[in-house]
Write a structure and sequence with these properties.
0% of the residues lie in helices and 36% in strands. β8 (117-122) and β9 (126-131) form a beta hairpin. The protein contains no helices and 14 strands. With 206 residues, the protein is mainly beta.
């Protein structure tokens, strides 16, 4: 069935409350300097855009929540809506997402060899690096991407490759930077290692 889906670049937008849609990239025409811009998405009161990126209709979306769970979704399964539409709830497209889970990261990839590793970071300063190919077997109801200590939550996820540097930023303006090689590769079920030592009351935010 996928072979019958037209491959095209699309703009994917997802709001804080999980409303998602895709729009053909040529909907956003180029403007001259000083242009007023166009509305990328309408949202209900109190909601706002949280993720916006360009990818292909044949790409995978890796959707990671604050509970450390990872879900897969093909981009062509997203609702194809008008530029000004608010979208539809992504929870209706994913199985097993609980009401108290919040999407913290969305990554797009054509294959699971696109990057060497996927790196997770938590509010308490833990980091975990795992080979991307460890997540190459999609399950409809998602998987545990990383274990979390009680009271901790996932705050961000990125693809990393050889010689990349990682920066963790805290709520109180502290930053730590390290080479990705300093975080050894671990299995999918590991909890990770300390990436930042935090002062009392501080937490990692990005």
């Amino acid at each position: 069935a996928e072979d019958l889906i037209t491959e095209e670049d699309v703009v994917v937008t997802i709001s804080k409350e999980g409303f998602v849609k895709r729009t053909p990239v040529d909907t956003y025409r180029a403007q001259s300097r000083g242009g007023r811009g166009v509305t990328a998405s309408k949202s209900k009161e109190g909601d706002f855009l949280n993720h916006l990126f360009v990818c292909s209709t044949h790409d995978y979306l890796l959707i990671i929540t604050d509970k450390g769970r990872l879900y897969w979704l093909k981009v062509y399964r997203l609702p194809d809506l008008d530029r000004t539409a608010k979208g539809r709830s992504i929870r209706n497209l994913l199985e097993g997402v609980s009401a108290d889970e919040e999407i913290r990261a969305i990554l797009s990839a054509r294959t699971f060899e696109e990057a060497d590793y996927i790196l997770f970071a938590t509010a308490k300063g833990k980091v975990k690096k795992t080979e991307l190919k460890s997540y190459s077997r999609p399950r409809s109801n998602g998987i545990i991407a990383t274990k979390l200590e009680e009271g901790d939550s996932l705050i961000g996820t990125r693809f990393v490759s050889k010689d990349d540097h990682v920066m963790l930023c805290t709520a109180r303006g502290q930053v730590v930077r390290f080479d990705e090689r300093d975080a050894r590769s671990m299995g999918r079920n590991a909890a990770g290692v300390r990436g930042a030592s935090l002062k009392e009351g501080d937490r990692v935010v990005d």
